[in-house]
Specification:
The protein is 67% helix and 0% strand. It has helices at residues 3-12, 22-43, 50-55, 65-77, 80-95, 100-118, 125-136, 138-142, 148-151. It is globular. The chain has 159 residues and is mostly helical.
C-alpha cells in the first residue's frame, strides 16, 4: 500500500491491478489500536494484561483468563482503547462478505460506523488514519474477492 510500491508497480507493470491482502488491512488497524493503547496509557491507568488482550483476536479461545478480565475491564471503563478495539474486531464483518459488491458495501458502512463512534477524540487519531488507508485502498481490497486464489476457493485462515 506504500506510495513507492504503487508507483513502482505502475511504472514496471502498467497493466497490473494491485490487490491489497486482508492481512495488511488487519495489520494497519492493529497497529492503530496499539498506538491508541500506548497514548491512553500515558494519561490514564489501563487494566493489567491489556496489551495482548487487545492485540490478539478477541475470541475467548484465543485469550487467557487474565486477558479476558483485562478486556472486560477495558470495555466497562469505556476507554478510547475500547473503541479502537471494537473497530478492529468489526473488520471481520468485511472479510466475511461473499461477493465484491458486498465487500464494497461493507467497507463503506464500516468506515461510516467507525467514524461515528470515534467522534472527535484526539487519542483515536491513529484509527482515523487507518480508516483513511482503508478508504484510499478500498478498490484494491475489493479485488481480493476476485483475485485468482479467491476465485478458486483457496482462502487461507489469515484472509
Amino acid at each position: 500500500m506504500s506510495p513507492a510500491f504503487l508507483t513502482g508497480i505502475k511504472e514496471s507493470l502498467p497493466q497490473a491491478e494491485v490487490t491489497v491482502d486482508w492481512f495488511h488491512i488487519v495489520q494497519t488497524f492493529t497497529r492503530a489500536l496499539d498506538e491508541v493503547r500506548k497514548r491512553e496509557g500515558r494519561v490514564k491507568p489501563l487494566p493489567k494484561h491489556l496489551r495482548w488482550s487487545v492485540l490478539k483476536r478477541g475470541d475467548a479461545d484465543h485469550l487467557t483468563t487474565n486477558q479476558l478480565k483485562a478486556l472486560a475491564e477495558l470495555l466497562d471503563q469505556g476507554l478510547d482503547t475500547a473503541t479502537a478495539w471494537r473497530i478492529k474486531e468489526r473488520l471481520d464483518w468485511i472479510r466475511l462478505a461473499k461477493t465484491p459488491r458486498a465487500a464494497r458495501w461493507r467497507i463503506t458502512r464500516f468506515i461510516g460506523y467507525a467514524r461515528e463512534i470515534i467522534g472527535d477524540s484526539e487519542l483515536l487519531e491513529p484509527v482515523r488514519k487507518a480508516l483513511a488507508t482503508l478508504e484510499n485502498h478500498a478498490e484494491r481490497v475489493v479485488r481480493r474477492w476476485t483475485s485468482t486464489a479467491a476465485s478458486h476457493g483457496e482462502r487461507s485462515e489469515g484472509w
